[in-house]
Amino acid sequence: MDLTDGPEEVTALLLRIPISGHPPNLVVGDERGFFAVEYSTYEYAVRKPRDGMVAVTNHFVSLSGPKRPEELQGNSKVRYKNLLRIVPEGPRTPERAMEVLGDHSEPGAICQHGQAGMHTSVAYVVVPSERAIYFAYGKPCRVPFEKYEL
Ligand SMILES: [Zn+2]
Question: Can you give the pLDDT at residue 5?
């Protein structure tokens, strides 16, 4: 399956995968495009990019629920707003994406060091056109990203 199948087919596949834990929101894409999917047991939403970007943190933007505890929800919402602010400030390159993942601007630092009990444990940037993943085994502000070719 690839994006030529369309968001509906990709989402239909995701909905067949049993959910364990908190329902996910994630970005699906390849070298031709990308979109965000939010899904739970009962519903799903597809968010297409605006101005060439789609941001995802730890809360649903399009779906009404389920909700996380308010402290975590608030932390996720300010990080989301921060992403919408800082991503357009720079070029759309893998290097810039890695820099954004190590961002500490407040409110809404992307790299978490205990805010609301949240800690960034790993970070990665997927670059379909390079068939590569840049992976940081730890906080992206402290450890270098290593490139893995697929
Ligand atoms: Zn950090």
Answer: 57
Q: Does residue 150 share a domain with residue 105?
A: yes
CA 63 to ligand 1 center in whole angstroms: 29
Expressed in angstroms and rounded, the spacing between residue 112 Cα and the centre of ligand 1 is 6
Burial class (CB in 10 A: 0-12, 13-18, 19+), 54: buried
pLDDT at 130: 94
Per the structure, the count of domains in the chain is 2
On whether both 100 and 150 belong to a single domain, the answer is yes
Residue type for position 104: H
Q: Say what the alpha-carbon torsion angle 76, 82, 88, 92 is, to the nearest 10 degrees.
A: -50
Are residues 39 and 3 part of one domain?
yes
